[in-house]
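Ticket 4471: requesting a sanity check on a complex prediction with guanosine-5'-diphosphate. Repro inputs:
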Amino acid sequence: MTEKSQGSVVICGLPESGKTTYLAALWYVISEKRDPNARLKFDSLIGFDHKHLNEIMRRWLQAKEQIHTELASGKIVSMNLKDGAGRKVCMTFPDLSGESFQEMWEKRECDPGLAEFLRKCDGILMFVHADKIRRPIGVAETTRHATGLAGGAAAAGPPRDWDPKDAPTAVQLVEMLQMLRCEALQAPARKLAVVLSAWDKVEEDEQGITPEQYLAAELPLLDQYLRHGLDRWDVRVYGLSAQGGDFERDGKTDDEDRNKKVAGIRALEDASDRIRLLVPELSKDLTEPIAWLTE
Ligand SMILES: Nc1nc2c(ncn2[C@@H]2O[C@H](COP(=O)(O)OP(=O)(O)O)[C@@H](O)[C@H]2O)c(=O)[nH]1
Ligand SMILES: [Mg+2]
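Returned structure tokens:
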């Protein structure tokens, strides 16, 4: 098997978009061989140590939210998977914190280590937390805010300076994707899997909505860019619940309602029953987006 026949995927996503939780659940499923029907199987690790993966898996099994300081910053880690024919697929996590993706919008700069992987990958897996989407603020709303008119309680106190992090989620993501096509990067990837994480939160309010419909409704700028933009992405939108519901937040156990739900998740006999992936049909196979990206 030559190097050329390998597939390669880069995992992207702003901070708090669900990357570590996905990795923890994936590690549980593939290292314990919990899903015999998974499209891809585990092969090997590059740069990762088992200890770290086992630690995030343990937190996932205990239904505890992941901690944010994880790997030494700048450490790029990859996992090789393989399909039934033995073809290897390399998934790379250039930045589990997500800060270098945010910097692509904030500073219009791309970390050299990240750039190296972007320049040679076949597909991009981009995480978006479905329940933490920053929406654009309209002019009327901004004015009301500033002048303390109707409902202007929020206007109390001095106005806060604008920070690029406050920009709408769709603006940050479209900028990041457009940068992949710029002269300096020229990322060859044509396929993009958008994973809307924490899909259980969406289903609490809007049963029956598909991931595509949700993206179009909540991130219209991103939706229009993906469908009509010049960058011509071949896109699939997934809804993913990798936890099955909210997990215990570090040091906070006084929310009765949340505690009950966490107990329900812990009580599931098979922890892989927490996982729901809308492909759009329901699946549990966390390797599906990786397999599609490298088909
Ligand atoms: N309810 C729910 N919350 C999730 C899910 N996946 C991730 N989260 C939460 O989203 C937040 C960010 O997740 P994390 O994996 O740490 O994001 P990262 O910064 O991209 O690695 C955390 O509070 C997670 O508990 C899910 O499937 N359901
Ligand atoms: Mg993380």
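Notes from triage: The longest helix spans residues 19-31. Leaving this open until the requester confirms.
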